[in-house]
From TrEMBL:
Name of the protein described by the UniProt record: Core domain-containing protein
Organism field: Loigolactobacillus coryniformis subsp. torquens DSM 20004 = KCTC 3535
Classification of source organism: Bacteria, Bacillati, Bacillota, Bacilli, Lactobacillales
Pfam families for this protein: Fe-S_biosyn
Record-linked InterPro entries: ATAP_core_dom, HesB-like_dom_sf
Positions of the Core domain: 1-114
Gene3D superfamilies named among the record's database cross-references: HesB-like domain
Amino acid sequence: MFLTITDAAKEKLAKYLVADKQIILDLDDGVGKFSKVGSCALNLSYRLLIVDAAEDISEDYSGTLDSTVGTLHIKPYSTQYLDEDMRLDVNPRLNTLGLFSESEQMDPNVNIVDITKEINA
């Protein structure tokens, strides 16, 4: 399984692609210490969580996903919703991140949530 992050998406993520941060591709289903609410709809909702590199996320996010920017963390069971080749890209009209498989748009609005700001506030 691999996630291609386009150059446009890398630009949006640039300030988080540093050694003291780790990135989680989170299936927002209400499970895990960073989830406050899950989606009850039939559609899938993803977000990119930015956490400190020292943060222990192994209990909920022990899965990994290879990408063009390195390893991302995921909930192990969330791989059942992902295809072998995924793409994270920017919608230039709306300036939002979208998650795509080869055959469909998985989530048109993948938010970036900087948890480090919430924890350190």
